[in-house]
């Protein structure tokens, strides 16, 4: 049975690298893959997936209104597709996640989606929310915070390196940077008063 997979992580964990490697493994065996990526992400030019370690591949940009099952069915009719890959899957709509689920359920083609779990404010992206809800398999791609703990969160820095606490979920074409942190260090960055001062902590009842 073909499955819908969601590989999720924070920024710079190597999701695109994993996607390109997995796609290559199919192609090396003579099997056709198609790669989709969000049309709004122009880091690698429209319709390209590229990884920080230098790999890249052509990709088909998807927009919010595109019917991915229709698009995949049309390509599959011309030449069979062995696996569908989706980069920047956090930008899928809920409908598009269901279209991908139907590609695996009804067409028998596995779908491997890769994306961010949460935005810089710690909120789920729409595509990630739906994928976490209905994907057959969830796989976490790990990276680490500067402290060595697993990084699950991300902070956004503006072009001058200052922390951004509010704003749109997506900055298109901006010069912002993202830094992946563990939850503790993310909270300390985002909420300045998250850590109670020592004298308050001393007043807390000892529960040990
Ligand atoms: Zn940390």
Topology:
Blueprint: E1 4-9, H1 15-28, E2 33-38, E3 48-50, E4 56-58, E5 60-62, H2 68-78, E6 83-86, H3 94-106, E7 111-116, H4 126-134, E8 137-140, E9 153-157, E10 163-164, E11 177-181, H5 183-190, H6 198-203
Parallel strand pairs: 1-7, 1-8, 2-5, 2-6, 6-7
Antiparallel strand pairs: 3-4, 9-10, 9-11
Helix pairs in contact: 2-3, 3-4
The structure holds zinc ion.
Zinc ion binds at residues 145, 147, 149, 181-182, 184-185.
Features of this protein?
alpha/beta; 2 domains; Wheat Germ Agglutinin (Isolectin 2), domain 1; disordered C terminus; 208 residues; binds zinc ion; Rossmann fold; 3-stranded antiparallel β-sheet; 6-stranded parallel β-sheet; single chain; elongated
The whole-number mean of residue pLDDT values reads 89
Query: What order do the helices and strands follow?
Result: EHEEEEHEHEHEEEEHH
In the CATH hierarchy, the third-tier topology of the largest domain is known as Rossmann fold
Bound molecules: zinc ion
Helix amount, in percent? 25-40%
Number of domains: 2
For the report, how would you describe the main beta sheet? 6 strands, parallel
CATH H-level homologous superfamily name of the largest domain: P-loop containing nucleotide triphosphate hydrolases
Class derived from helix and strand content: alpha/beta
CATH class of the largest domain: Alpha Beta
General shape: elongated
Q: Stretches where pLDDT falls below 50 for ≥5 residues?
A: 196-208
CATH architecture of the largest domain: 3-Layer(aba) Sandwich
Count of helical stretches: 6
Radius of gyration: 19 Å
Major sheet strand order: 5-2-6-7-1-8
């Amino acid at each position: 049975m073909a499955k819908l997979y969601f590989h999720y992580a924070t920024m710079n964990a190597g999701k695109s690298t994993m996607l390109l490697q997995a796609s290559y493994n199919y192609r090396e065996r003579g099997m056709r893959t198609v790669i989709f990526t969000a049309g709004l992400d122009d880091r690698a030019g429209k319709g390209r997936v590229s990884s920080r370690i230098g790999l890249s591949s052509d990709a088909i940009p998807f927009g919010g209104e595109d019917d991915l099952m229709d698009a995949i069915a049309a390509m599959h009719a011309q030449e069979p597709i062995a696996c569908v890959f989706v980069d920047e899957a956090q930008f899928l709509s809920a409908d598009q996640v269901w279209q991908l689920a139907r590609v695996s359920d009804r067409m028998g083609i596995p779908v491997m989606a890769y994306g961010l779990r949460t935005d810089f404010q710690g909120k789920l992206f729409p595509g990630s929310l739906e994928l976490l809800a209905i994907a057959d398999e969830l796989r976490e791609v790990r990276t680490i915070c500067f402290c060595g703990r697993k990084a699950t969160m991300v902070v956004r820095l503006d072009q001058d390196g200052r922390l951004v606490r509010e704003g749109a979920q997506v900055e298109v074409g901006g010069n912002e940077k993202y830094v992946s942190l563990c939850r503790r260090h993310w909270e300390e960055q985002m909420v300045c008063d998250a850590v109670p001062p020592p004298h308050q902590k001393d007043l807390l009842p000892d529960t040990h």
